Hints:
Elements: E1 2-4, E2 16-21, E3 27-33, E4 38-44, H1 46-49, H2 51-55, E5 62-66, E6 73-78, E7 84-89, E8 93-100, E9 119-127, E10 133-138, E11 144-149, E12 153-158, E13 165-170, E14 176-181, E15 187-192, E16 196-201, E17 207-211, E18 228-229, E19 235-243, E20 246-253, E21 261-264, E22 270-275, E23 280-283, E24 290-293, E25 295-300, E26 305-309, E27 317-319, E28 327-332, E29 338-343, E30 348-352, H3 355-358, E31 360-361, H4 364-375, H5 384-390, H6 422-435, H7 442-445, E32 458-461, E33 467-470, E34 588-593, E35 596-607, E36 610-620, E37 626-634, E38 638-643, E39 647-652, E40 656-661, E41 672-673, E42 678-683, E43 689-694, E44 698-703, E45 708-714, H8 716-719, E46 724-729, E47 735-739, E48 744-748, E49 753-758, H9 762-770, H10 784-789, H11 809-829, H12 832-849, H13 852-863, E50 880-881, E51 884-885, H14 886-897, H15 904-929
Helix pairs in contact: 9-11, 11-12, 12-14, 13-15, 14-15
Amino acid sequence: xxxxxxxxxxxxxxxxxxxxxxxxxxxxxxxxxxxxxxxxxxxxxxxxxxxxxxxxxxxxxxxxxxxxxxxxxxxxxxxxxxxxxxxxxxxxxxxxxxxxxxxxxxxxxxxxxxxxxxxxxxxxxxxxxxxxxxxxxxxxxxxxxxxxxxxxxxxxxxxxxxxxxxxxxxxxxxxxxxxxxxxxxxxxxxxxxxxxxxxxxxxxxxxxxxxxxxxxxxxxxxxxxxxxxxxxxxxxxxxxxxxxxxxxxxxxxxxxxxxxxxxxxxxxxxxxxxxxxxxxxxxxxxxxxxxxxxxxxxxxxxxxxxxxxxxxxxxxxxxxxxxxxxxxxxxxxxxxxxxxxxxxxxxxxxxxxxxxxxxxxxxxxxxxxxxxxxxxxxxxxxxxxxxxxxxxxxxxxxxxxxxxxxxxxxxxxxxxxxxxxxxxxxxxxxxxxxxxxxxxxxxxxxxxxxxxxxxxxxxxxxxxxxxxxxxxxxxxxxxxxxxxxxxxxxxxxxxxxxxxxxxxxxxxxxxxxxxxxxxxxxxxxxxxxxxxxxxxxxxxxxxxxxxxxxxxxxxxxxxxxxxxxxxxxxxxxxxxxxxxxxxxxxxxxxxxxxxxxxxxxxxxxxxxxxxxxxxxxxxxxxxxxxxxxxxxxxxxxxxxxxxxxxxxxxxxxxxxxxxxxxxxxxxxxxxxxxxxxxxxxxxxxxxxxxxxxxxxxxxxxxxxxxxxxxxxxxxxxxxxxxxxxxxxxxxxxxxxxxxxxxxxxxxxxxxxxxxxxxxxxxxxxxxxxxxxxxxxxxxxxxxxxxxxxxxxxxxxxxxxxxxxxxxxxxxxxxxxxxxxxxxxxxxxxxxxxxxxxxxxxxxxxxxxxxxxxxxxxxxxxxxxxxxxxxxxxxxxxxxxxxxxxxxxxxxxxxxxxxxxxxxxxxxxxxxxxxxxxxxxxxxxxxxxxx
Length: 930
């Protein structure tokens, strides 16, 4: 430990009553008496900590001096974010200071002549006390600031709407000389000359507890009584108390508000206590076990300072006669190893500790673990829930906010139920529930949780002796017909933080493909059946939906099997999974598109030159009678094929590719050959584009009507030892691939690069699971991004990490980063429906957990650079994205902000701008029509 007393820190030999270190640790503020007024000085921390900086004349010592208070300043306190400084004095005022770019901010922008290096302006003067202001305290998250005074009251000020008063706490019968906030956000405590300490509830600002016993013996009092709450919220330590006639600092336990411990040793009354900002940890000297504890400094009228650890029975350090007068204030730096203290003699002292002496601060994750265990909430307490109840509603759009909840957007709009289709109604509701995203917040997850299975049947008996049995609920499988080894207690949905998530069966991409793996492309949710129930393979054929594409493969046992729709026919032989190698199709196989059906018979014709493969084209008429219209032969066994509206794509083992006309069987292209056989082939949903990917990773996309190549690239650069299990090409020519390791990509021709769609990246996993985007949305035409992302093999978080089970500070930034990337992908792949959904989801997340800075950034971008107040906006002045006006996305974001009262001013501000632009555009259109 090192002690340093910088003689150059002074108020012209006048008293210094308060000191506080900025959260950044780069500066500190002092408050006290000036020459003829109250004085606030902001000092540079570097010369205090560093001897070289102190001797360097180019390093400033005083950053700013403000002499605006009319009388002595008793307290200075920085806000938690470091943007504001509050000062309170004998002039009954509380001043709020904020840094400005220059000194032209008006009164309070500078002081002390040419001493100012920084410029701090008084942005608000809080008038409400009838006497001297003695102490100040910012609430967690800087939602409120409390001030106490000799007028016996504590005023709670709204830090977001200065100078609004939230509440005046009345109940003390003497001068209130200290105030402190519970770090959990539930209480605020005050200490007074009336020999009492009061604890007030922040929910209704009522007096929750009055403690008098430790203070009954107190005779004369001190100028201030600065009490402090421990960072874990478990201990409240008062200033002046008495025990057996001796002065103490009383320890009040949160559990039952017991007062059976105190800090003793000071010869005169304790004036101030200040807890270290962090919970600390270190290994115990003898047992080597990890200890978690808090640290506090105690200052008294005997001019001595003591440092205590809650893990020790005796003080860590005691320093006698540190000053010539009483110690009046204490402040710890955020890094935890520097303590500043000030005295009535006009001097300050700096104590520098080491990690070996004090310990190591707990990380945010460990702090969250502790908070969750003790309070069931996050360390970053959000006080805005109660604040919104106290907030005055300024916009009529917010009148019904308290009656409604913020609801996350849904990707697939719910379908209205149809009469006479009860099974379809249940199916539609299940599909809607599966598509509804879950809030990153845990409280939102319970309302959207899928039904959990009943693990056993329940049997009861009625009065007449009859048995009543409630059967087991068996979760339904996905509508893709994937075989599963899941048991009856498999959860139907993976929820973030759910203990069942690590035991859930992840869907492997190889389970979604057969000997010719392709993406199932239904345009509507299919009915779900338990995998123990077998479908009948002889379902009468129905007309296929042309927009669904033709890549669903079915196989028949013989060529005489009745024709069937590709969505309804179940394979009658075991499914073989892709291995990454081109494997010959065994037996007979067929695929259908509408009334067209193409069959492949490998090794069906024996010749002297070798065996041939027969490819047959069939048509099913209105009477459900199939008719053979053409037949051709291929000289090499077929490994994969696909059927579209006008063509069939047939790929053989000898690396050849044939494009055949569905009506005549004649070749559309000449026979093509690549360096290795194709393992995947498919058509776009509009049947205009055909794509193949080979064993070696070569990817080709052809424009069939124009008979030209659209894209030629290689997947090998992203395969990394895996292989392609799913291939899809959009109508715009964007290829999507899913690899055997679960990672998926989309190739962007503009960027000449593969865009990452899904992987084991923690941000992507958190985003997909948290937003329920991994629910099987299987409509590749309308929702290509969500469909491809649903084919992933990445499970949820492991429950052995306690902190992972709950909302953590990183989750908001991770969720927003994920959503913004989804927006950019939707723009590149031209998916307007999903683009609108993800902008709406961005609005939901911002309304729930966003910051004002981020909200304004998003709204400014959607408003347009030419209308934004932010001159740093980019050059992107395009008013629309994918043909949708940015103002439509802005309305979606504002609709979510409307559900949170705390954003009402931002909502009103940007809604007015949006209305102005709409009115102006309407007038311009009217003039053009004239």
